[in-house]
Write a structure and sequence with these properties.
The chain has 366 residues and is an alpha/beta fold. The protein contains eleven helices and 13 strands. It folds into two domains: 192 residues, Rossmann fold; 148 residues, Rossmann fold (3-Layer(aba) Sandwich).
Length: 366
Amino acid sequence: MKKVGVLTGGGDCPGLNAVIRAIVKSAEKRYGWEVIGIEDSFEGLIRSGKTRVMTSYNIRGILPLGGTILHSSNKANPFEYVDPDDPAAGPRDMSRTVLQNFGTWGLDALIAIGGDGTNRLAARLFDMGLPVVGVPKTIDNDLRATDVTFGFNTAVTTATECLDKLHTTAASHHRVIVVEVMGRYTGWIALESGLAGGADVILMPEIPYDMDAVVHKILERAKLGSGFSIVVVAEGAKPKGGGVVVREKGGKGKGLDRLGGVSIRVGDEIAERTGVDVRVTVLGHIQRGGSPTPFDRNLSTRFGAKAMSLVAKGQFGHMVCLKGQDVTSVPIHDAITDYKWVPLESGAVLTAEAIGICLGRFTQFP
Ligand code: F6P
């Protein structure tokens, strides 16, 4: 019986377990392959004792579960691996160990479920001869090769529910509430949740913000009788001519820069320039947790089944993706080119401005 290894890398997101379940079920029922779960992302291919056989029996019940039963890491980069037992040794290239263990453990293929970082690593290992298929995931929805990633719909749903709750308290106290959402360098979560949650201002990385426009919007609302406002800020939003707010620098063996804190700056400036009472709420990892929505469960299930079919066909070096209504695949190298930014001419952007939401700029309608 052939064996396929499965790992989850990068930040977790709702729907990962649904992908794992679909891989295990289709491997068993349709292709007759055995599935080996690899724990803690690529770390499980570097260190022994982190693998287990997965069957449809021992994974039952995981479809609605958030997180990943295989655990994840965004620091397990085999090319710059920092041994947790010897961090002083610094980053080392362990990619050959990955290939050796893969062979020694009798694996025939690998499915790597992850975001841009994980798929980048998968592409490099594919170039070294590893038969790998990628599955894209991220709440940020920032992967260019796929129309949508699973996890995004759940994150938007969670953020929208939070905005609904913040609305009532903001209105009761005539306050401005600034809500920071995730999304890394793109504004998908901010825009979609802000639109669904009735935000008055949405700031996102794609439109460097002008505080004059934000202040104008809040004062204009106050003049018209609405003393409260909801301001949604993507963690990657930046002022015109300024940069993103980095909480912790990334680097070799440390992963990506950690963003966060722009909402405090925005909130302080609004308070100073409008005199309105301001509160700041950072939604943080609540957006990554919880049970996947039906949309995400189904997209995850389709991605998992498709990944297993690529493995069975030997179509390695590919990443599954959604194009329109179809789940298909692209060469993994084409999938990791650049971020998928929110297009400024998209329906959501035009609609937001048409209904008077301030996107951090003065809108001039043609
Ligand atoms: O990429 C998903 C994401 O949740 C981003 O939106 C956020 O910037 C980042 O991961 C947070 O990462 P960590 O869990 O390492 O703090």
